[in-house]
Amino acid sequence: MGLTGLAIFKELPKKNCGECGVPTCLAFAMALAAGKATLDACPYVSEEAKENLGSASAPPIKLIKIGAGDSKTVELGDETVMFRHDKTFYHPTGIAFEVEDNLDEAAFAAKLEAIKGLEFDRVGLHYTVDFIAVKNTSGNADTFAAAVKKAADAADFALILMSEDAAAMEKAVEAVTARKPLIYAATADNYEAMTAVAQKYEAPLAVKGSNLDELEDVVNKVVALGYKELVLDPGSRNTVDVVADLTQLRRMAIKKKFRTFGFPVMAFTSEEAPLDEVMQAQAYVSKYASLVVLRTTEKQFILPLLSWRQNLYTDPQKPIQVESKIYEVGAVNENSPVYITTNFSLSYYSVEGEVESSKIPSYIIPVDTDGTSVLTAWAAGKFGGDRVAEVMKELGIENKVNHRNVVIPGYVAVIAAKLKEDSGWNVIVGPRESAGISPFARANFTS
Amino acid sequence: MIIIGERINGMFTDIGEAVKTKNPKPLQEWAIKQKEGGAHYIDLNTGPSCDDRVAGMKWMVEVVQEVCDLPLVLDSTNYDAIEAGLKLCKKPAMINSVPAERPKIERVFPMAVEHNAQIIGLTMNEKGIPKNADARVALAMELVAAADEFGLPMEDLFIDPLILPVNVAQDHVPEVLEAIRQIKFLADPAPRTVLGLSNVSQKSPDRPLLNRVYLAMAAACGLDAAIADANDDSLMETAASVEILLNQAIYCDSYVKVYRTR
């Protein structure tokens, strides 16, 4: 949606002089909204109004990139909705891990190794984490710079540098200039010096306030200095306050076009116990955080968090698909039955769950139907007997089993003849619903 | 789709008579009946034969509230009568209506803000009802600017682009649809829209058919509310269908029942 008539009218001088060729400012605002006039026609409109009107058509939340050169580049922000079902969430939350610069060498290296080890393969997907956040706990600028350098050398993660001392920050950024790290943080006390460092190295800058009012104030001051590559930290640390603040920031940016808050936001976990911490992180991922900084690096706590992030950021309009390949359920052998379904994840996992509970090791082949269900795919001509025969051949199921029996979904019994003709296999029409697989399997395939 | 029950209006002889003789029964019966039909608001209009509109409106508000808990729509050109009625309303009410004329805007908008009331704003002024959509939208813009000026939440402004009977003003009918479409773009959040739906079929045969078809057409253009016959079942079923087809209410098999009992 472009600018509304009311939004334009509020920026006009309200002189009703008619010099724009339209009798009143109100009518001129409507002409502008309808695209029938240009703002230049009004000689009295202020520079500020022009700026406001020009930027009102910009996206509500700015896209900020962190990382460059030989590191990961992580994109944050650029979101447009409060609820994923309204459209989708676009840029998955960046996951960062805090490492303190006062750790001894061995502990520091171990921590980096632990973070590097946070890679997971699950249900055909690969999960990784994004950032190392180096914290200047030592208070020493040289120690900080050395630690940052070590972190940069250890892995290609994007970096967050945490120090409120601008001199230490400058030294550390200098050590990893090409990486365009996130500078954390500009505050009410140091924003001039911090903004200068960010501008000099063209690195994104985190702005921290102790509450939303102070945050607004500091952001406006930083923007007035001419810097707009920002990430916001509202300063709250209790889950309930953070969720309220993040919601407010997102709402103001999207619903009210409040440009001061039109930037990605970050949150820090504060819980001590890893289990509580990961629950807290999950709340922040759900509630609009573009970046979450954690401390625990234990795999068992991070995997569920990354699974949740992946889940939340899927596009609700696009069906989730599984890879089209031969799946083995249980300890299969050359006599195991073969089931056919589609690669729509709902269809596939319904079948897989039922096959598993039948306790008879089996093969399942999900045919690639662009993620559509059995009947949808069949109606669209993506699940005919010829197509299924083709996929069976391509995947080489004939080399896995000695028998030549294949089970198809009961609702597409009609494809059986064609499938038999094209594949030469004996086609067994299975139950219509996957819930019928267990009794069907026990009746037909006693192991 | 908000349906404002239109029946308690002094223009109807039974109501006109009841207001004159201060007989609450017909008003109370119609209030209950309209609520059962699925109405969300009850319109109250003393009618032209009432001598003391202020006293008449106060009495109407009181007797209807005795039996019905729906919010009320105070329908009068007499703003003293509306103000007196507002003071007695137990729930935030709606003012029906104010044209895009400065003196009336200045009288009604502050009153609405004070009493937390909603306003129906008409896209007309001293010069009458405009012919085309653009002129209607220009007047709607004045009402939108007034809401902003007086601090009335935009969702509490219902703009009525004034539908006229299809048998004598047929060319206005599509213009009103276009006006509804454009009004939704005047502000963000958008003002809401309302029609005096039954006007479209004045003096035409098979009025319910015209009413419900136009309701569906207007809803697709962004209509939010209609002052209409809440006891016309075919109309209420249309209103229920519209919410489903515009994805405003989540579908279920019994969507008509849900709409009427919500």
Write structural notes for this entry:
The complex is a heterodimer of chains A (447) and B (262). Chain A is an alpha/beta fold. Chain A is 39% helix and 16% strand. Chain B is α/β, with parallel strands linked by helices and 262 residues long. In chain B, helix 9 crosses helix 10. The chains are: A alpha/beta (447), B alpha/beta (262). Chains A and B meet through helix 1 and helix 2 of A and helix 6 of B.
Largest sheet of chain A: 8 strands, parallel
- Average pLDDT of chain A: 93
Low-pLDDT ranges of chain B: none
Share in helix of chain B:
40-55%
Straight-line distance between termini of chain A: 62 Å
Q: Helical percent range of chain A?
A: 25-40%
Question: What oligomeric state do these chains adopt?
Answer: heterodimer
Alpha plus pi helix count of chain A: 16
Instruction: Based on Cα principal axes, name the global outline of chain B.
Output: globular
Radius of gyration from the alpha-carbon trace of chain A, in angstroms: 29 Å
The most extensive interface, with participating residues per chain, is: A-B, 13 and 12 residues
Number of helices of chain B: 10
> How many beta-strand elements of chain A?
17
Strand order of the largest sheet of chain B: 1-2-3-4-5-6-7-8
Shape annotation of chain A: flat
Radius of gyration of chain B: 17 Å
Q: Unreliable stretches of chain A, pLDDT < 50, 5 or more residues?
A: none
Side-by-side strand order of the widest sheet of chain A? 10-9-8-7-6-3-12-11
Q: How much strand of chain A? A: 15-25%
Mean pLDDT of chain B: 96
